[in-house]
Design brief:
Structural class: alpha+beta
Helix content: 25-40%
Strand content: 5-15%
Number of domains: 1
Oligomer: single chain
CATH class: Mainly Alpha
Number of helices: 3
Radius of gyration: 17 Å
Number of strands: 2
Distance between the termini: 47 Å
Amino acid sequence: MSKEQTQTPTVAPNPTIDCRKAIFNRLDVTNLPREVLIESVVGGENYGQDFVERQLNELRKVGEIYTVPMDGGEWLEVRRT
């Protein structure tokens, strides 16, 4: 008899969905993971772009997020690691 067991890994729910719901409802998202806030900007127009930008601006002020220029005049948001 083999003692091997197949275990299903526990998968955390996608935090982006919760964040977008929170932003849509204008809840305080300051305690959510920074990468979730950054990812939410992608859909920001539908989920309160101004609110997301205010949250990201706070992270920029403390140096957690910085912007780097890309070719073609675009900008990329990067999280400090």
